[in-house]
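Case study B.
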Amino acid sequence: MTRHTLFRCAVCLTALLAANANAQTLKVERLQLKNGLTVLALEDRSLPTVAYYTLFRVGSRNERPGITGLSHLFEHMMFNGSAKYPPKSFDRIIEAGGGYSNAFTTPDTTEYYEEFSSTTLDQVLRLEADRMRALRLDTQNLEQERSIVKEERRVGYDNSVEGGMYETLWNNAFVAHPYRWLPIGFMGDLNAIRLEDARDYFRTYYAPNNAVVAVVGDFDTKQLFAKMRRYFESIPRQKPPRPVVNSEPPQRGEKRILFHRAAELPAVMIAYRGVSFRHADDPALNLLALILSHGQSARLYRRLVYEKQIAAAVNATNDSRIDPGLFTFYAQAQPSHTAAECEAEIYAVLEEIQRNGVTERELQKAKNVVRAGYVDNFKTNFGRAGLLTGYQANWGDWRRYADYLPRHDRVTTADIQRVARRCFTDRTRTVVTLVPQRNAQSGEAPR
Amino acid sequence: MRRASASPSARILLTAVALCLAAAAAPAQRINLPPVTRHRLKNGIQLMLMEYRRAPTLSVEALFPGGASGDPVEKAGVAAMTADLLKRGTSSRTAIQIAEEIDFLGGSLNAGAGDDSLTVSLSVLSKDADAGLNLLADVIRRSVFPPEEIERERQLALAGLQSLPDSPEETATRVATETVFRGHPYGVFRTIASVKRITRDDLLRYYQRFIVPDRLTIIAVGSFQIPQMIEKLRARFEDWTPSGSAAPTVAEARPTPRQLVLIDKPDATQTQVRLIRPAFRRNHPDFFAAELADAMLGGGFTSRLVDEIRVNRSLTYGIGSRFRLHKYGGFLAISTFTRIETTRAMLDALNGVLKRTAERGFTSEELQKVKSYLAGMFALGLQTPDALANILSDIALYNLPADYLQTYLTRLLAVPLADVNRIARAYCRPESFSVVLVAPVAKISGQLKGLGRFETRPITAVGK
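Model:
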């Protein structure tokens, strides 16, 4: 649910470049419907299957206090019937067509996808058009998914030490920006969301002009476009959603939060202010995250886990988004070591990079990791469909994928040192320290 | 995310393997995969090779039969620690050098012990095949088990075991498996005590007995020419002298009696639920019938469990069933969770679905739909070199027919309703399932009245 769209797309992209010599000439055709729906088609007849992917430009970033979690709750409601299709028919049709469907919600987007036998394509187009036109938005749908989503929240955050820390980190790192809550939303808001809120959401954000569709696989593009026109073009366009205002004020001092939870080992999460994925420094921060924590030869693993043996796990992530996100760290202490030791050692590693930079070999290794990772992701129709919708939605043009690898290849060791100096300052830091409460026995056995 | 069930990730990768994936009713159900080339090196090592042209990658698995089930009970964890140590120093490379080399390739080199095998796997870009295979051969053949590296891995293993109570899901799954395989090596997991007892000699003994060419199968899938790949593997493995060590022997798992177990997790706001019962081994004639029954019971979004427990009753976010079949025995398990207050409602609902399934079986309509579903998922799931290497590895490990891949769909689609319903009757009776709950005992006891006596343990006792 918190998977990051852009990162995944970026991963897909390099795969393409590495895998296909003529990657720059991906034969994507674009159809712009009168109602604003953008459709991208990539024919690949090598398999009798199709991936159908829809991205709506809405995520928890578009929410407000009182309805946090609605984007994701809404994602669930999208599978429960529409004007022409009763509840449960969506999954029946997809699964009987030898396929599967799913969806996920990020802070910036909500994305739906299915893969299925190409003989099912026409049915899928009708299903998709009908739910974009006239989703069944009634109390039964809302209440069914409200309970399910609350269980999702319980399993992922309320009963997960790391999930709870992660939520606390974002809750506290931001003051004004909606990134301060996660897509899962607060339990109180999940209880309070009304049907009317969902209806507003549907009208505003599920309009064709707020969506990008990519279809990749075994079909004839001409026929596909004819059907897209027939099924989708009469869905009315809506007023564009109100832009999200980023009023996040500058942070002027470190924030430290103690997080009390039943847990066995101490842990710490640290966040620094990051950048937008459109920022010129985003690739350098991606590579820096890899230099810090990809594999057992990475700087943090070597120092904290291997040499000092104070941490059982450590990682670094550049979580860049439409608006500036966070660059985050997580470390779990080894038994008999403390979160404070791990925290201090992470800072020592960062200071070394700020002072002395990284080696050419480290940077090349990170670039190799980026390149190799792409190959694994770009082989699939699903992967390519996600890539196309992501670049179309976030950059305004699917062709921008071609910039991704060059943007990373241009990064120098001087860039890495510069972004490390700029990003890692204690005044813009937020630290969540886990204070473990020992697990204890609560009562006697039932009879 | 819409789904978080016990079933595999919905993310399916798709590549250029040509295959025919018509609807179940279509007459021709064929998968046109590249052929598997089998070759035996002079020292007995089996090679299974498949060319895979779309992506410039190479996936290799070295499969050594005899996994964690070969561990002495009091030293459970030897196989896992041996696997961890393979990458931690050879006669020519330090642990750091190994990590540095594989990371620089942007590849992965992993070793892990399963119940029936220890597998070392390599994934690199094809252009790095030689460098990757050099590393693979080095960690397999020339591992030296440096004492300080053993202590490092021991500390990490102990940290993992100590933090087990922080994961109610993992705890529930572990206790359920211990319960269904009680008295059999499959039910023995490493503990803090057993990991502390393991010595370097134990690791060396395991290494010398099991990490040998005698029963080794190497699987390679990638964009290579078969003769060249045979040559590369021959150059790195054929001069490895067989040990003559005896093949690992494991007894068949015997059905265990039903048990009710409650693991106390006082701070939880949710109950983790596992229902589990003995089944059969992987290489069993009922495999295909079980696959179909499993998918109808708790496989996709339209399965009975998802439909009744999640969609109709909103009792959970994730639920799934799984026949998990090993070489010498297996089980059927249902995994889910619900809030504490609805634990009894969950157990009653599970009981209802199972009872109905055992008594009335599945319908021919359900069977027809699930055949289409599984046929499609099988095809979609075969399309990366890693996935193909995994299936070839299963063929070798479980002695599946050589044409397993090619005949999978035909055999799946041929299963009659009577066979599936025989499975339903034999394996879905609710009273045949052990129940494992992880929940706060004080808050849940009242809901369990009338279900029988639950053996109760604090969560902190698991894995100790």
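Chain B has 16 helices and twelve strands. The remaining cases will be described in the next quarterly update.
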